[in-house]
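Ops channel
N.P.: pipeline sanity check, posting one input/output pair.
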């Protein structure tokens, strides 16, 4: 456990324009916990949480740890050493002669000052540049070509971060008007269907992370309509600089299953393998696997317009 300085944490957060929600997501606690830390309701926290908090604020751990007060000075002042009695015959009004400065001692002092200056510069360089991950952040969206009204299809976003260490990011996805989101993995930090947006705040290591959700086509959509998707990803170290999510951006409203890439009413070997490659490793995603398997085994399917559902060929 370490003792933290709540007031200093609040000042650092506000000076960097960060929210308690952002800090809580990076550290892995609730916003109420961040508030209690800042208001000194919890003065001691786990060392692991303190290190994550310092990393989110981009400061050394020592900046948020409460420093012990200087030890009080002793009430008794040290007494000067007794001076030897004046030698007989020495005039009282003759001031003592100061010893000549030692050149070697002076060089040592100058050398120590230079070394301290170099150490301070090295520390500042590390804190300002090396400690923050320098790298490239990109995101790509993968969409199926089509889906009929009322049916759900998977949306997959791959976020790639190429650098040493980890970074905190915000991924925002804007949905087509009137669409629903029955499932998302991982669960979004905020979900606003009135605004038509999903937002994830997370911390990712160097490499690739995947965000997936099911989007349901509005039941009132007409064949020939196009569903449009937009999104951005923002890294903590570049707040204000958003990177657009690349890749697919539209889905056509059509009476074909979303896995039927060539719209021939058959889920062939290539198409079913593509589905498994993309979605089978995402634990818990309900992407209609059993029905796709049955269409593949049956050799085809059709869209029942009256019942608004898919039917396997007999």
């Amino acid at each position: 456990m370490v003792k933290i300085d709540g007031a200093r944490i609040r000042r650092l957060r506000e000076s960097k324009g960060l929210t308690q929600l952002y800090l809580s997501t990076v550290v892995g606690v609730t916003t109420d916990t961040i508030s209690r830390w800042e208001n000194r309701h919890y003065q001691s926290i786990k060392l692991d949480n303190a290190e994550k908090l310092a990393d989110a604020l981009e400061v050394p751990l020592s900046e948020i740890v409460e420093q012990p007060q200087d030890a009080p000075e002793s009430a008794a002042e040290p007494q000067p050493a007794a001076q030897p009695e004046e030698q007989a015959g020495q005039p009282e009004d003759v001031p003592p002669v100061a010893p000549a400065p030692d050149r070697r001692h002076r060089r040592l002092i100058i050398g120590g000052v230079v070394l301290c200056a170099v150490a301070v510069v090295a520390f500042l360089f590390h804190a300002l540049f090396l400690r923050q991950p320098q790298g490239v952040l990109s995101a790509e969206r993968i969409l199926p070509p089509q889906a009929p009204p009322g049916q759900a299809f998977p949306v997959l976003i791959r976020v790639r971060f190429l650098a040493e260490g980890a970074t905190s990011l915000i991924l925002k996805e804007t949905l087509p008007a009137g669409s629903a989101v029955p499932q998302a993995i991982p669960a979004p930090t905020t979900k606003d269907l009135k605004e038509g947006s999903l937002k994830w705040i997370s911390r990712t290591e160097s490499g690739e992370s995947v965000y997936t959700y099911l989007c349901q086509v509005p039941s009132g959509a007409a064949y020939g309509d196009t569903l449009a998707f937009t999104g951005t990803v923002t890294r903590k170290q570049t707040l204000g600089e958003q990177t657009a999510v690349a890749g697919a951006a539209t889905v056509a409203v059509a009476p074909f299953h979303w896995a039927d890439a060539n719209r021939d009413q058959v889920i062939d070997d290539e198409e079913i393998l593509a589905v498994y490659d993309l979605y089978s490793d995402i634990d818990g995603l309900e992407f209609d696997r059993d029905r796709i398997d049955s269409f593949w085994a049956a050799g085809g399917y059709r869209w029942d317009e009256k019942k608004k559902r898919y039917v396997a060929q007999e």
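N.P.: looks fine end to end. The first strand starts at residue 2 and ends at 3.
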